Amino acid sequence: MARYTAVYGSLIIITLVGLCYEKVWSKILFLGLVAVPLPLEIKELIDDFSIIRLTIFILNLAVFVFLIIR
Q1: 10 φ/ψ angles, rounded to the nearest 5 degrees
Q2: Fewer CB within 10 A of the terminal residue: the chain, N end or C end?
Q3: 14-69 pLDDT, tens per residue?
Q4: CA–CA gap between residue 57 and residue 52 (Å, rounded)
Q5: pTM of the predicted model as reported, rounded to 2 decimal places
């Protein structure tokens, strides 16, 4: 799990640098990085429902939809 977290964090740093330089590939990568945790959050909601998890899921989904529209 630590390796996946390190890879995810590294990709976020790379994306942020690309966003600072206004690169198109960084916007696509950022959209992908926002979308990756959504299936895991759905699984967590099914396995152990709570209002906090539902709120986090709704916020992440709203950010994802906002990025797609924009």
Answers
A1: -65, -40
A2: N
A3: 999 999 999 999 999 999 999 999 999 999 999 999 999 999 999 999 999 998 99
A4: 9
A5: 0.77
Structure tokens at 58: 């709704």
d(CA 15, CA 33): 9
CA contacts within 13 A on the Cβ side of 48: 4
Measured in whole angstroms, the distance separating CA 35 from the mean position of its chain's CA atoms is 5
Task: Specify the long-range contacts of residues 38-45, CB closer than 8 Å, at least 24 apart.
Answer: 38/64
Residue with tokens 């209002």: 51
